[in-house]
Design brief:
Elements: H1 2-22, E1 51-56, H2 67-76, E2 78-83, H3 89-102, E3 107-109, E4 111-112, H4 123-136, E5 142-144, H5 147-150, H6 168-177, E6 181-183, H7 202-207, H8 221-234, E7 240-242, H9 252-261, E8 265-268, H10 273-277, H11 280-289, E9 294-295, H12 306-314, E10 320-321, E11 331-332, H13 339-353
Helix pairs in contact: 4-6
Amino acid sequence: MLKRITVLGSVLLSTTLIACAQQPKIDFESYDPPSTLVVPENPVSRSKFPFVDVHNHQYRMGSGSLADIVSNMDALNMKVMVNLSGGNGAELKQKVENARKQYPGRFIVFHNIDFAGIGTDGWSEKAVKQLQEDYNNGARGLKVFKNLGFSVKDTKGNRVAVDDARLDPIWKKCGELKIPVLIHTADPASFWEALTNENERLLELYTHPRRKRSNEDPAPWEVLIAEQHRMFKKHAGTTFIAAHFGWYPNNLKKLDSLLTALPNVVVEFGAVIAELGRQPRTAHDFFLKYQDRILFGKDSWVPSEYATYFRVLETADEYFPYHKKYHAFWRMYGLDLPDEVLKKVYYKNALRIIPGIDLSLFPH
């Protein structure tokens, strides 16, 4: 009897091991089964109204054909693209001229600061002079990348803070020229948190380890954000566009308080639409309240991904996926914004804030 039980146990164990060995190994990225939820679906591949994308990067705009880019823009209903990667000097002039020659009115180019040599005598004056020259050559805004606060150092090797006084003349000049400053400071706060199962960005940090930060690399998140806010407050005569909802898309109550305190600041939602899509009621109310201070921004130029943005903004759809699972593993919901709010977000606010946009491309 004992022998029979032992043999039977061995057979069951072998069968179990074989079954386990035959089961496929599925990692987090691969496991993305279609939902069995049966609800109305209204995918949107073209925006309901023409729009301005205020957050795009076209590094090679200075030469070659722009036909493919414009073809994709037309399919999306994007009338104007703001290229934040304009550079400065001859590079910027070449980008502006190439765009005007091929597709006049379809592109706006922003100036970028050359931080080399900051700390030397006359650096600020030189930077302002370059900004004025680039404005004369067609630049209609200033883009500040996250290297300011992260990796920009002065001639003594010190980290240059976002609110460094040596940059004040630049922000002041932008106010005088009536051009906006679109600024990206820091990254999501979760990038500073420990790599534990309680970190909501854990998968992203595993797949993109260079995004991990710490209080010493380069500074605490709270310090960087505070530097930005002090700069906003100090230069009340300059319009600032806080990129990525100022990294408060997951805390709209906090962003509400900041926009109330800083009337010269507006926001754009490049790369954070997934945060808004998982809180549809709160985000809907926020968009209604700040409908005059929100701009459409996407960031990376992947035309197929715009559909996610349109669907979140325009529809009342439920439980649909984001296009990058490592970035947002949750499902989203549409905000179902009213047409008048959509028009402001898509183009009216941009026309008011960014000079030089061809008004004839948009409904009156």
